[in-house]
Amino acid sequence: MAGTTPGTPGTPRVLRAMNDRAALDLLLEHGPLSRTRIGRLTGLSKPTASQLLARLEAAGLVVATGTDAGRPGPSAQLYALNAGAAHVAGLDVTPERILAAVADLAGRTVGRFELPSPTRRSAGAPGAVERVVAALDGAVKAAGLVRSDVHRVVIGTPGAFDPRTGQLRYASHLPGWHSGTLLDELAAVLPMPVEYENDVNLAAVAEQRLGAARGHDDFVLLWNQEGIGAALVLGGRLHRGWTGGAGEVGFLPVPGTPLVRHVTRVGSGGYQELAGVQRLPELARGLGVTDPPPAATGAGLDPHLGPAVALLERAAGAQEGPYRRLLEAYATALATGLASIVAVLDPEVVVLSGAAVTAGGEALLELVEAELAELAAARPRLVIGEVQEEPVLRGALESALAATRDEVFDTSR
Known about the structure:
Layout: H1 12-30, E1 33-34, H2 35-42, H3 46-58, E2 62-67, E3 77-81, E4 87-93, E5 97-104, E6 109-116, H4 128-142, E7 150-157, E8 160-161, E9 168-169, H5 182-189, E10 194-198, H6 199-210, E11 219-224, E12 228-234, E13 237-238, H7 270-275, H8 280-286, H9 305-316, H10 321-345, E14 349-353, H11 355-358, H12 361-375, E15 381-384, H13 391-408
Parallel strand pairs: 4-7, 7-10, 11-14, 14-15
Antiparallel strand pairs: 1-3, 2-3, 4-5, 5-6, 8-9, 11-12, 12-13
Helix pairs in contact: 2-3, 4-5, 6-13, 9-10, 10-12
């Protein structure tokens, strides 16, 4: 009878690797644990748990860290994940800046750097590759590391790189990123694997792993910040579409706005013109708002977004009058496009995210939910996104961490 290969399921090597991964995931979830506690949580005997910890410690994946001396009975040695065993980086790219961060294996951000875009595009201005490298190196330096310490980088941009051509699509407002050789150039200068993802998709990753979509395999994230977009998660996985353009709902035809016949022109019709942030000041004036509040000045808010956020923040607290009418009208606009998305996908949950919708809070959420109940046969649960601080960057780090942990935690390799 032929013998089994070392990688055959059920062999000691594979079983050890499975136990190792289970223990590492427990340390990631719970923090430092004793040998006895790890044994109980994994169902392993004390000798097997001891061998497991010795193996992981020798591999540099766990470290002994203090004791549980504060508990009744004899103190026991505690073991923790060695968070410094690997590092990842995430980049959030917008027309205004590149925000970069480095995180350790436990997900803790250990370095950050923000690189503003050049105020003028000229022949001497650095290109996209140079700016990505500069932003990454800035975050790496802030973390006290060198570039080769980073195991993986995930870059989030508006639009999406077409997997067939490698070119960025649906993001004409991101200058310098549309070269057909851009991805090859980045691969040539960066020593680690680099992945690229749509920014709204990364916001959905953050909500799926850390926020309002935890435990849900079918959900839509509707994003409204500088533009309207959606991320579609079906069966627990992002649905990107044939050209990477799934979720570009700003182009969606809706009643009350022109058809988008020139998709490269931002705000030239469709759902974006009906419910985008640039629509809010005009909508407010038409409803009798004569005393608009000062523009909000939160971090990262562009000049168009600040006034919209301020209007929605004030409208969220209004019970009557023009501000209440503004909130109701905006809820109808949001629900109009959302009804088409829901009719096609029938998701379990819809997460509302981005500064232009989270500013409206629960008051806006309730109005959108009521409107959607009249416009769509499906009844998804609507929730406000919980990852409201740099969700794109957080999603980039979480995406990089998931892949890196799969590699680093696999002790059978």
